[in-house]
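#random but structural
TW: two for the price of one
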Amino acid sequence: MTDIVYQSVGVFVALVVLYFLSCIRILFEYQRGVIFRLGRVLGAPKGPGLILVFWPIDRMVRVGLRTIVHAVSPQDVITRDNVSVKVNAVVYFRVIDAMKAVLEVENYHYATDQLSLTTLRSVLGQAELDELLSQRDQINRRLQNVIDEHSGPWGVKVALVEVKDVDLPDHMKRAMAKQAESERERRAKVIHADGEFQASTKLRDAAEVLKDHPIAVQMRYLQTLVEIGAEKNTTILFPLPIELFRAFINRSEKPQPST
């Protein structure tokens, strides 16, 4: 009889030990465990490290705290100036409150995905095409603020939203190329006109200086001849000042005495 009692006690102890061993759970550093006991959540998430889950009365839900990189599928968006574009984005978010991520929403990953889709369409629909192409940083911050405001009650923190690609229609690409080409031509004409204006201003100042110093005109004339002679030219244009022929012109204009 004693042996039977000892054997029963040994079996009971072995079962208790096996039960406690089966209740052991190990959570990594980036994981937290939300424990439900008889359907009611315990005070705070467990982990990381070694914890005990007393089944069948306890049920544990693992929640990861690492940053999740989610690629938002391409969306057809009509901008405020009625241009149809296809846009996709990348959302970086993480769980900061494991309790809310389990209790406040059924699937925080799916909920954040759908929230990103709707927010991307609504926010980009309020922006013009030029703003979408040139002010990408402001649009990214606006998307991040809107998504984070709605996902905050779920215990999810949106760290960053990046609009990755903006796919324009072919006719819009051609129109933008023509616009850029016209803008470059306009700038070239403005720069050329500004250069002509500056050159004419400098020539006017030089003429004012040379007008009062005739010898400077001769020095400039000789310097021009030196520059022409330095080149290996077969033909040289040799200008002569009109003053050299003024005496002959005046003599020919005088009336001849009648005989």
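TW: number two ↓
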Amino acid sequence: MPTYNDLGYAPRAGIATDDTRTVFGQVMGLVALTVGCAALGAYLGRNLSGGSGILFFFAAFACIFGLNFATRAGHEQLAIALLFGMGLLLGLFIAPVLAYYAKTNPAAVWQAAGATGGFVAALGAFGYATRRDLSSWARTLFWALVALIVFGVVAIFVSIPHANVIYCVLGLVIFGGFTIFDFNRLRRANMASSVPIAASIFLDVFNVFLLLLRLFGGGNRA
């Protein structure tokens, strides 16, 4: 599961309404295009073996850190290219998983996709509409994510009843929190931080989809 804690943003007080709408449109456009790149990667990699995905996973992580450095250096076009590259690589990473479910349980894929859209839209709207600054959530969410990863590793070696359901539900709670948090900071962001925030929101969408696919699929392949 991709994680992140270095996707920064540059908040700005008193952003005009028109500027806020422009930033929102820019970020959501980037998110949509990145989702499209991930879908393309999943299609291109549908015949890949599961073992090859780990290379794409690490390459995607390199893109995450790279786009942050590019943003800080003022290289917006490079940052956007790395954002789309991250989406493509993560699509290639999950391609074998999606191919497996498409053959064995295609309904789970569609259910996960539909539920992801509703989940992110509802919590994103809440986070964006909330006037309170939720920056204080960052540390709690980060450590909750670390705890989830530890639980997932322990569950590999220790038999825990209903571990898959527990993992997925906890993961949805945590990434639901990240979704609220990221849309809340989008409310306060400026154009210079649009790429890192788009990356954060895309990762929220990506992880929520994987968790729901795992939950609806009734297994631990995702």
